[in-house]
Each structure stands twice: as C-alpha cells, then as structure tokens.
Amino acid sequence: MTSIRESAGNGSIRLSETIGAHILYVVAVAAFAAALPSGAYVSVGTGVIGAIGILAMWRYGWGLLHFVRALIFRKVVFPRQRKAADEAIKHDPPNTFLLVTTFRIDSAVTTRVYRAAFEAALAAPGKATVVASIVEAGDQRLIKSLFQAICGDQDKVDLVIVRIAGTGKRDALAYGFRAVARRAPAPDDVVAVIDGDSIVPRDLVAKCVGFFQLDPKVGALTTDEVSEVRGSRIFQEWYALRFAQRHTLMSSVGLSERVLTLTGRMSMFRASIVCNPEFIRQVELDYVDHWRLGRFKFLTGDDKSSWFYLLRNGYKMLYVPDVLVLTVEDPPSENFVSAAAMLMVRWFGNMLRTNSRALALGPRKIGLFTWWSILDQRMSMWTSLVGFFVALLAGIFISGYALLLYALWILTTRYILTLSLLAARQRVSVFYPFLLYFNQIFGSLIKVHVTFRLDRQKWTRQKTTSANVAKRPLIASNFMSAYMHSVALIAFVSVLAWGMKVLPTPNPVFFLP
After folding, report:
1. Residue ranges covered by each domain of the chain
2. Which of 77, 93, 116 is nearest to 207 (CA)?
3. For the segment 273-291, what is each residue's pLDDT rounded down to a tens digit?
C-alpha cells in the first residue's frame, strides 16, 4: 500500500508547480518592474518607503528566525531525537489507545479513517485499543464490521464503542477520555486523539511512543499534516500552502519543545494526563472570563484547551516532522472567500480566546521564545495591515505610483517566501504569492474582527452556535463590539496617516478657550 508521504510527495505535478510556470512568473514581475517609469521610485518619498522598510525588516527578520530554527530542528536536533526514540521502544513498549471522534462524516471517509486506525493499532509495538466516540448507529455498525474484517480474532487490538447524543466534539472527547480511564491504563501508556476525517499512517504508534519514554516531562506531541481537498483548485492550493507554512512554524517552535497548538486532527498524549479529571473538565467545560463580554463557554477549540492545560502545568509538547497525517477537507462553501472567512473565524477565534491567558503565564514559566511567539500572534494582526494601509493612503494623497510600487513589492517578497517553502515541501506553486498575500490581509482583518467578538463561535460542520450568545442583549453583544471595532480601526488608520504627514497634527491653539 502506498504511504501517505509517498502520495503527498509523488503526486502528479500541476502546471503551476512546474519550472516553466516559475520562470514565467519571474519574467512577468521583471517586466512589470521595468515598465514603471524611473520617477515612480522617488514619487512617494523616502519617509513612506522608510516606514514600511523598518517594519518589513522586523517582520521578515522574525520570519527568517522561524525558518532558520525550523532547519536546525529538522536537520540537526530531530534526527538525534528520532534515533533515541526508536531505541526506546525496543524495551517494554507501552500500550496505546486510539480515540477517534466521528460526527456527520460520510461513510467513505469514515471507512478510510477507521481502516487506517485499525492498521496502526495492529502495527503498534504493544497492545492497542481503538475507542470510537460516535453518534449515529450506522457508524457503529460500519466500525464493528471493519474491525472484524481487519483485526479478526486476535488479542492484541480491542475495540470500544462510545455513543453520545451529538452535543459536540468536546463532549465526544470527554466521554472518550473517561472510557480510556475506565480501562485503567498505565501512567506511561499513550492516547492518540484522532479526528473523524484524519487518516493516520500505519507506523504512527511505532514512530511516536518512544518520545514519551525518553522524557517523563513530555506530555503530548503532534505531527506533520497534508490535505486531500474535495473542492475546487483554489482550495487545494490554499490548503497545501497552509500546511506547508504550518510545517515550518511547528518545526521552529518544536525546537523549544512547546508547540503552539495540539491539533485536533491528530495529537498524542500521555495517558496519565488524559485520565486526569481536571484535564477532562478543561476540555469538556472550558470557559473564559472577559472584561466586557463576561463569562462564556468555549464551543470550539478543544485542541487549544488541551494545549493550555499542558502549557500551564509545565509539560513539553513536541513536534514529530517525519510522521504525516492525511486530512480530508470539505470546504464549508463553494465560494472561496466565504469558505475562507468561515474557517478563519473558527481558527483565529480559537487562538485568540486562549492567547491572553497563555500570555499571562509569563516567559519564565513557558520560555521566552514560546511566550514571544504567542505575543506575536496578537501583534501581527495589526502590523500585517500597516503596509496595505500605508500604500493605500500614499496612493490617495501622495502619488498613484505608490500602489504600483506596493504591488511590485508584494509580488517580489511573497515569491521569495514561496521559494522558502521548498524547505518544507518538494514543490511550490506560483499561486502561492497571491494566496500568501490574501492570507495576510484578509486573515488579519478577520483576526481584528474576531478580537472584538470572542464570544461568537460556530462549528462549520455541526451548524451549532454558542447558546449564551443568543441570550446576551444586542446592545452588549452587537453594538458595543461593532463600536469598539470601528474605533480601533479608525485610530489605527489615523496614526498611520499622521505618521505619513497626510493627516495634519491638531493645533493646540484650537483647544484654548
């Protein structure tokens, strides 16, 4: 059977990934630069260019730091960890639990997911138990038939079915965790938490459990991901770009042994943590106390809840870059912008709801680089918009050439960023520069929007929303959120305009009686 990595790396080459496409892109950008008159490069003034340049040095310097750290991790540090982990499992391998949560996923995908889980359980170095947390009776019949066909009559792999009422993934996980706890696992046994649309490799357990045996402070780990997108071409390009960027970022923070998220698609935990009632409560009934919005429960973001629990309790969280999980992606809308907005609202909402309390732990507890990376998540939503608004203001008030120069800057720098992703993936697309810029601007606007509406939550698959949002008075929930959001944006643009001197400084004389 072809492995996930072989499928991801050796698939058919798209036209946008060919050398010819890249040559055409470079020639087009060079022609664009040559077509600009010489006066265009001095028309906007050195102040505007200098302001963007200083910010760019900071942002690209931070990106370069992540890139270098990622290379050091994957080329120098991780190979030593891999060798030690492989050696560790040769001696008394732990038992493994594979907890799979399934809800409203078609039977074809469910079949692939559980087939992969059963095969990984059979290939595990120790005994394994697959725990299926499900809602529909049809899924139960399908899973049992797959178990009988793949595992048959043997005593190495067991199957546990947990039926819940379809009240959400958090409940599905909590019931699954309690089912694991009832099996009384040893403290050093491990639990792989697998989403219902994630297809794990056959050697998942063998390549991961050794890291837990090496260090008792390792509480969890997560792995690389690629996607199989059931949607139009632009979605396929967008997801491929997203996972390539994720691989670089996770490798960088993996060097500090504290990743920034334990993805719900597939993360592995030490059993003593998963069976801890406090951990289960954190995942099942997490909430935040907001100074304006009050207390509201988390509907989505169970992976952020588990991550915060481990971060707060001082556990290490590792990244395993040579294990690849395939996720089957169904965009929530056929319209790309609409689908991206829905997904970003969920992703960024999960991040921002946990971000502030993670920052409150302080750099001494979680490490300076990890703490600064979390802080950067809050700052980058604003700094990423500076270039766009400065170029827009310069184009309106100084020279129309500013917009053309900005476009040239974006086409050049985003292509360089695209080429840097060759360190993470075998091929990159000439569409990536445009998608990188879309993610930067549109994603930052979504982050700012969500920052003032942290209580708004919605599952893209479950079509459910937070109950306490509906009960909150509109003046508190809608008007004040919109008001503060508008004031923040106006202040942001005003400061930029004042710094560019296209907005005059108020004369103090006007305020005298």
Report:
1. 1-88+226-254+336-508, 93-221+263-289+317-325
2. 93
3. 999 999 999 999 998 888 7
